[in-house]
Amino acid sequence: MQKSIERIVGDSEGVSYEFPVLRFDGSDKAASSAYLQAALHAGELPGVVAIDALMPMLEKAEAEGRIKGNITVVPQANPIGRAQYHFGEHQGRFHLGTRTNFNRGFPLLAAPDPTLLPDATSGTADQRLKTRLLLLSIGHDIVLDLHCDDEGLAYLYVHTSLWPAMADCAAAMGVDAVILWDEDTDGTFEGASITPYLNLPADVARFDRRVATTVEYRGILDVDGALAGSDAEGLYRLLVARGVILDQALSTPGSFTGVVAPLENIDMMPAPRAGAVLYDVKPGDRVAKGALLATIVHAPGEAGGRTQVFAPQAGIILTRRSRRIIRAGEDLLKLVGDSKSADARSGTLED
Ligand SMILES: [Zn+2]
């Protein structure tokens, strides 16, 4: 394993940011290569500790000569967001300098060609970080971007072009659900990882061996040693299933038995009132149409001071908020419905 340091110059004199990149050289140029990054939203740490648990497994494979494809690992992809504390609270989702989400605004290239990337020295520090991360990842067959939700199941976002070919990956990782999408106008990292291949001939794009996914490793509080260990095993199984690592002790993944649904089936349930949220459901619950999802206490102690929110359709609760304070119009949860949501959103679900 080789370690190198990437450096992003800050937007003012005397400020710069650094993050390590860990690389393993594969022995077989024809084998699939893999890129893993975590904490693009800098405070989302379940993927960081999963990578920490994965590294000894990769080092053992390397010592035993079992690494076939090149592997690039960026355990903490966002040193800018990592340093952002605002009145004592960490803010790792948006760049404070530009108010831009760290997982939006990636360049959507017409082809997987690094020369099409913007000038790596222009733009604000967060834009230059995005260009650098894309440059590090481009050309890998497998690109995994490890995030987490507020409170939630383990699930993947996958572009429709990669499904069901990626079902083996979902099974290997042991996630609960897969959300399929087909439109990215905002430039997520995942979108920037798959878009360059969408207009290529099928024999060049090779969707049968390509992987690009945003991995949502449950909730932001699910930073846990046991979960990190099982997630690392899931990542390892994926790398073995796709031939990046050789491990004859592992069997091929079975079929994926979790929930698979298009993005348009998700109901985000905007809150009708502001107040304190009392949830009646949790991630993983199956709900019927009309089931009580949550009660919002907006005028405590007063007649009519509570407003109930009901399921618009049957489905599975995928996520809910980690905080219990809510403003009117903010989303209460993600309900993966059995059919298209009347409030279906295209592109990204959240800001
Ligand atoms: Zn995230």
Automatic annotation (TrEMBL):
Keywords: Hydrolase, Metal-binding, Zinc. SUPFAM superfamilies: Zn-dependent exopeptidases (SSF53187). Pfam families: AstE_AspA_cat. Gene3D superfamilies: Zn peptidases. It comes from the Bacteria. Residues 33-193 form the Succinylglutamate desuccinylase/Aspartoacylase catalytic domain. Its cofactor is Zn(2+). This is Succinylglutamate desuccinylase/Aspartoacylase catalytic domain-containing protein. It comes from Mesorhizobium prunaredense.
